[in-house]
Write a structure and sequence with these properties.
This protein is mostly helical and 80 residues long. The chain is 55% helix and 0% strand. The longest helix has 14 residues.
């Protein structure tokens, strides 16, 4: 919405017309956000994702998924 609002303000200043946020402003803002955030790796290689979040892969020992309480209890129930 912030980007669409900025686009609407720029358009209003350029055309000297009031009109608020239009559908085209929303579409352009959505497309700009999508292109700007299209930086995610297309693979599931851990090193690529760590580099994306500015972690040096050499300093990471282990990566594990977060489990909910029920999943963790079931997982630990078989451990002696």
């Amino acid at each position: 919405m912030e980007r669409a609002k900025a686009m609407a303000i720029k358009r209003a200043i350029a055309t000297q017309q009031e009109g608020g946020i239009r559908e085209t402003d929303l579409q352009l803002a959505f497309n700009a956000e999508y292109v700007e955030n299209d930086i995610f790796p297309t693979t599931d290689i851990t090193e690529d994702w760590l580099k994306l979040i500015d972690y040096d892969p050499e300093n990471v020992v282990k990566i594990a998924p977060i489990r909910t309480g029920n999943e963790a209890a079931r997982h630990l129930s078989g451990v002696i």
